[in-house]
Structures are given as C-alpha cells and as structure tokens.
Amino acid sequence: MINLRERGAFHIFFSGLFKRKRYSKYQQTNQNVYSEKLSSIDHFPLYPDLSMNIQVLQQMFHHAPDLVIRHFEFAGKGTKAVLVYVDGLTDKNSISNNVLSALMQSSFDPKKGLPTTVGDVEDVHSWISIEHALFAGDSALFIQGETKAFLLDTKGWPQRAIDDPKLETSLKGAHQGFVETGSQNVAMLRRYIPNRELIIKELTVGVRGKSKVFIVYLGDVASEEVLQELEDRIKQIQMDVIINTGELSELIEDNPYSPFPQFILTERPDAAASQILQGRFAVIVDRSPSVLIAPVTVMSFLQSIDDYSTRWLAASLIRLLRFFAFMITLFLPSTYVAIISYNYEVIPLKLFLSIAESRVVVPFPPIIEALLMEVTIEMMREAGVRLPAPIGQTVGIVGGIVIGQAAVQAGIVSNIMVIIVSATAIGSFIIPSYDMGTAIRMLRFPMMLLAVMFGSTGIMIGAMTLIAHLISLESLGTPYASPLAPFRFADMKDSFIRFPLWKMITRPKSVRTIQSNRQGKPKR
Amino acid sequence: MSRKIGVCLLILVMILSGCMDATPIEEVSVSLILGLDLDEEDNLLVYMSSPIFSKEAKDKEEVYEVKSYTLRHSREKFDARVIGLTSGSKTQLFLVGKRLLKKKDWFDYLDPFFRDPKNTVTARVVAVDGSVAEVIFNKPADKPRLSLYLTSLIDAAAKRNIVKETTLQDFHSQMEDKGRTAWITQIKKKKRIELTGSALLAQSGQYKITITPEENQLLNILEGKKKGDYSITIPVSMESASKGKPYISFSISDLKVKKKVKFNGRFVFDINVDLQISISEQLFPFDVQKDYAKLEKSITNELENETNQLIQKIQKSQIDPLGLGLYARAYTYQEWKKVEENWGNTLAKSKINIHVKTKIKGIGTSNHQ
Question: Which of B5, B20, B26 to mutate to test the interface with A (most CBs of A within 10 A)?
C-alpha cells in the first residue's frame, strides 16, 4: 500500500504533471520597456545632414566613452563624412588602413560605391541596425547628403587563442577546443565536415543583446521535423541576453524539472562534428565556448570521443566500466545504508564481522554517517572546482587527510564508509559528461533517503521511478532512453559495447535521420 | 494543481510511513553458534555464542547457556542477557549434544528455523560427542572466534570428504524423506576440538552410529559425490607388498557410481563404482607400469571388502544414509509402498552388492622400484 502511493507520488514529482512554464514575468516586462524605447528611436529617419545624424547618435549612445566619432573629408570634392565605431570591438589596423586611409585618399561618387578595401560593406537605413552593427564590431559611415549609412566589417574584439578543451580532456582526440567567437566555432566544424551539405542556420536570440545562434547540421541527413522543433523553441526565447549555452539549453529543454540533462554541452569540435555526422544538430551560441548537441539519448552521455579512436575491444571494456561506475554512483551508498540498517542477512559472515567491527565505534546511525561523508566530499569537490589550481591541490590534500584518516581515527565515520564514499566519488568522475555526473551525484541523495526509510524495497522503488522517468523523457521529441526503450537493436551497436567501426553502418534510429546509412558504406 | 497534491502526498508518505525499525548492523547480536543439549534432569539447555564488536571488551564473543522449554522460548532469556537484539539470521553452526541426540524426535525443536524466514537455513548441523558446553565455552587462544574457526574447520574437512557437511536445509529434507536418514558432522572436545567423522541418525533423528573419517570417504564414494578431494590409504595384500610397508595411497581423479535396484522377494541393490585413481604414495617396490593389473585387482578387492563392512554396519543399525530408499521408491514403488514406514528394517534385510572397478590413471612423477 505504502509502496504504491510512494511510487505514484514520485512519478508525479518527476515527470508528467509539472507543465512547461519557461519565461517569467520579469523578463516579459523588461522586454516591453526596452522595446518602447527602441521604437521611439526608430521614428527618426536618417538625415542627409551630418550634424543631425550625429545628434541622434549622441542621444542614442549617451554615456558611451568607447564610442568613437571620427570626422573626416574625402579627397577630391572634400565631401564631409563621419566614421563611427566602438573602440575595443573593432580592429584598429583595419580602420586606419582599409577605411580611413583609403577613403581620405579618394573622392566619393555616390554612383560608384565606396572606395574602401574592407571585405563586407552594407547599406542600411534604420538606426536600430546601426546600433546592432556598432555593437557587433562594425563601423558605420555617415556621408553628408546621403540618407543611408554604410556598415563596414571591421570586427576585431578581444579573443582567446584556440586552446585545449579544459573540461573534456581526451587522450587521442584533437587538442582544439571551441572558443568564445561563434564564427570561429563554425569554422572549426567546417574543417571537420568540408561538405556543402553542412548547413549553418543563423538565428538571433535575446532582446537587449542579440546573440547569434547557429544551428549546424547535415542538410541531407538530419530530420526536418526535429529541426523545426529546435528552431521553434529557440525562436520562442525572449530573454534579455543569453550569456552561455547552458542558459539556452535550459530554456529549450523538454522537461526542465528532470534531474537529467537532455542535451550534451561539449567544448570539443571533434565530438560535435562526430555528432553532426550521426544526424544530430549542433547549436553554437556566439560568446560561449560550449556547443549544444541535440537530440541525444542517455547513452550519449556515457560515450566519449576517445572511444572511437581506441581499439574497439578496449573501448568496449572502458564503456562497460562507465556503466558500472554509473550504477555504483547511483546505488552504492544507498545499497550500503539499506543493507547495514535492514538487510544485514545478505552480507557474507566475514564481511559482516568486519563491517560491524568498524561500525561499532561510530556514534551515528548509518544514514547520518553516509550523509556526513557524502556532503563533505561534495563540498571538497566544489571547493576544488572553484579554486585556482595551486590552492585546489591543497584542498585535495587537506580533504584527503580529513576524510581518509582523521575522521576514521576520531571515530566519526567507519572505514568501510570512507571506501564507499570514495568509490562513489570516483565512479561519478568516470562519467564523461560533467552534467550527467552531477545529475547522478545529486540523485544518490534521494536514493539514500529511500534506503534508510524502506530498506532494499526503497532502493527498488527509487530504481523503478528512475527507470519510468527515463523512459518518459524526451530530447527534442525523440525518446531519451532510446536504444533500450524503445528497444532498437541496431542502435545497440554503439551503446554498452562499441562495435568495430566498419560494423556501424547505420546512423542512430532515435535521431530520425533522412539518410539512415552513413555515407559510403565502409567495407572491410 | 495535481502537481502540488502530488508533492504534498509525497511528503506525507515520507513522514507518515516512518519505517523507523531500522537496526544498524552493530546493534544486532547474531547467534553465530546455537547449541541444544539436555542436562542431567533432561531439561532443555540452549546455548548461544554471538560476536562482540566493541574494542573495549576483552573477549571477542559472548556465550550464554539458558534453560528453556523451546528454542523460541530461549530467545527472551537471551535478550535479557546479550548486548543487542538476538537474531538467528546468520547462524553458522547448530550444535546438538549427544544426550539430546539419543532422544527421539529432537528434530521438532528446530521448527522456528523452518517457520520464520528471518532465520537462516544454511547453518551446519553438527553432532557433539559429549556435551555442547564443552565445545561452546571453549576459547582456543591460537584461533579466531570460535564460530569462524569451527566453520572453516568443518568446511575444509568437508572439502577433503572426511566429514559430511549438512546444512539445516539438507537436514530437513533428510529427516522428512522416508527414503533416507540423516548424516551429519560429528565433533568432539578432546584436548582440543576435533572432528571425529560423521554421525548417522535414525529416521526419528535418534543417534545410531559414528563413522570414522576413512569410512566417511568410502560412504561419500558410494554416494557418488565427485566434489572435493579424496585421499585414501589402504593396505594391499600382494607378494611384493610384504617386502616393504604394505600401504598404498591414492586420490580419485574420476568417479562414476551407478545404483540399481530390483525386487525378488527382497530388495537387491547393485552399486557399481567406477574409479579412476592416481597413486600418491606407495611404500613397497612394485613396477606399476608393468603390473598395473595386479595392483588394480588388489585395490579393488580391498575397497570392496571395506565398503562391504561399512554397508553391513549400516544395515545392522537399520539406517539409510545413502538414500537407497529413494531408488527403491523410484523403481519399485509397489513394493516400497508396503514397507516405507519401516524402511530401515527392510534395508537391513536387503541384499546390497558392491562392485568396484579401479583403473590406475596416474602414478605420480617417480616410480619407486
């Protein structure tokens, strides 16, 4: 009776009844205020008179010391002009060599176009596009007598060099990670898939700061339906600014109340390219170094790019090890708590005696002991992540001494518990995806509570609830637990065991690709 | 709305159900050894030995003896004495004193082990030649906890086939089945604790005879048990043997036993034993490679002789540890049905023929000439 009610409630808690409510009222009001202001500026036309234009500009960009307004005259007739750009977002070399020096040495003829050596030149007629372009690093050129402005591509903002991916290290993969510039990230993907079917769809997200968002996919492979869904969801977003891909991912998730991540965020171009080749979509958000991969299955979180460059037997073994670690992280502490509080019959006698001997000095019940240790290790992990590397090591050493030695000697925790907790922590770090690792690390706490309340029955209840939840989850409308439920035999080739590459001819069915075979059937 | 109800329900269930009967492992007093015996006035004595985990305690175990009416009744008495909650879920050994063994129907006392699923049925049933107190209060200084020590002693001996290891579950089926009788380990406290072979019980559970470790090996062979090692030493009666010490030892590498039964006025059993042996010790000059047939014949004779003696001993006691009754029931049911209530007696009157075939498969790495 209790079990039934329990399970029902949990199911409700996790899935069905939490409906999607994505955008808060706060964001809506903000947007309204801003758009009113926008439209008021948009009433102004672009004047033929330079000084009027400058007045409008100064009204628009008050308190913007980095806005540079440069007056100059063309050679020849001496037409007056003003070049406007934001200092810091532009390439100074390009401005002085390709724009200013070129313009000042030639005369202006409205019929011929601009005598500049900049690659991309665009005419615009509205102040809003000028504003966006200036903040994107373009410079705007106003010329006396013209009712339009010219936007010149002089982008050149502070950038980081392309570097090793920090979060996802790999042994044999490339040593290039995505950077904060969207166009560079797109270029990196192009290098992996130099094919004209590689389609890059550009969208903008954000009301205050327009972020460019690129959806990258293979046009002749990826599913139209899924693309439509992805686009719709991205277009619906009405945030001020998207700072990171993580925010985008939270806003377009299928089930934001689920503990499980429903998209992969990767900073590896090779991993992203490999996913695109399987028929998935990569979403690049400008200004963010992580790229979102969708749709994914729960299996994808346990795959690593190294698996494909390692020999398949070894790779399969490592993959099985990951699944084992997944289970360990999720169930080991709770199973231990359940066994030593309720079901001690199942422990072999010698283990029973050694557990009891180490437990007898501990003044706390098993669950308190377990929570104490698990919370300590979570704190240590978090401290280690946030601190700079040299101090982070100190945390490791101090923590190691505290939980490894002192706590046991002081009789606060038992030896066995230290082993359980460290096995759990190590297990969670084996999982290649940080998000998935975090999810299951979090889930082990409710599992432990269930274990202490209902013993092994509680663990079963928890496991069943999780399975039910995983089955009900979707990623962009495709089943999340895919090769297992719905069971797809062909997809199993790249799940628990990685089959040899020449055996994996088809793309994953869960992605609903148009072309199911990978190009040029590899023959052996 | 229903979401909120769901969450409230969840919280309520968590609080209300309150399964707070969890008992941490160290607060349980598990009776690793349980003993049953009778005192001089035939009162039931129950013994219990449970481990102590505290480092402050000097002894590793606490052992108690209580007088009680039944096994379950003794639990309250133990609870009044031991440190934690008594539990029979990890019992390793079940000792039965000789005095109790000689009574009929002592098996009835074991009822809680088969009724209450929290109790284990994998405890080993051990007959104590003497009183249980002698064994259970023993604290050998050079050994681990008595329970661990006795358990591994019996397990190891059973691997060598010198005693029969019988768990409570096996014992239950041996006792309930009319076609066979029980066969359990026997232990004795001499200077130290020693395994003295196996005790054979009657259908009623009453003690009948003790067989030595050597006889236990033979009985295991007749039963057809392949697991574990056999190391058999027998005298050989050959000309050449008298020149040295006339003993030969061998191990059994393969063993096939076929039992057949027919009824012609009385039950006739044929037990065909096919042995493949390798010699592990030979203390007299003899060329086995040349004259192996002679040696095989001699061993066969000796084995047949010894097993026949053993069978006669068993028949005389009117017991059936081999389970020949099972064969009688399977193949000659009509005749069996008439005598099933009195099987021991019937078996004593039956004819049991043992035919041994021996083949020497190995003589080791040196051939002593």
Answer: B26
Any domain includes A321:
yes
What ipTM does this complex have?
0.83
Place of tokens 């049911």: B333
Which residue of B6, B22, B55 is in closest CB contact with A452? B22
By the 10 Å C-beta count (0-12 exposed, 13-18 middle, 19+ buried), A401 is classed as exposed
Residue A492 lies in a domain: no
Domains of chain B, CATH where assigned: 25-211 (no CATH), 225-369 (3.30.300.210)
AA letter at A264? I
Give domain status of residue A123, yes or no: yes
pLDDT tens string B23-49: 888 888 899 999 999 999 989 999 999
- Using one digit for the tens of pLDDT, what is the confidence trace for A80-125? 899 999 988 898 888 888 888 888 888 887 777 788 888 888 888 8
pTM (2 d.p.): 0.82
Q: How many CB atoms lie within 10 A of CB B299?
A: 23
- Which of A453, A457, A460, A461 to mutate to probe the B interface, most B CBs <10 Å? A453
Final residue of a domain: which of A234, A264, A296?
Answer: A296
Say yes or no: A349 and A436 in one domain: yes
On whether any CB of chain B is under 8 Å from the CB of A1, the answer is no
Domain count, chain A: 3
- Residues in chain B with CB shorter than 8 Å from the CB of A17 are 2-3, 6
A325 and A455 in a single domain? The answer is yes
Q: Verify that A334 and A391 share a domain, yes or no.
A: yes
What are the structure tokens assigned to A454, written together?
């209902």
Q: Please state at what angle helix A50-60 crosses helix A127-135, rounded to 10 degrees.
A: 60
Check CB contact under 8 Å for B9 and A453.
Answer: no
For residue B186, which of B200, B172, B175 has the smallest C-alpha distance?
A: B200
Strands A139-143, A198-205: pairing is unpaired
Q: How confident is the model at residue A20 (pLDDT cuts 50, 70, 90)?
A: very low
Helix (H) or strand (E) holding A355: helix A349-359
Domain that holds residue A256: 182-296
Same structural domain, A262 and A402: no
> Looking at chain A from residue 351 to 390, which residues have their Cβ under 8 Å from any Cβ of chain B?
352-353, 355-357, 359-361, 365-366
Of B18, B90, B148, the CB nearest to A345: B90
Give me the residues of chain B with pLDDT under 70, please.
Answer: 1, 14-20, 367-369
Whether A110 and A37 map to the same domain: the answer is yes
Asked whether the beta carbons of residue A6 and residue B55 sit closer than 8 angstroms, the reply is no
Convert the pLDDT of each residue in A35-90 to its tens digit.
555 556 666 778 888 888 888 888 888 888 888 999 988 887 888 899 999 988 89
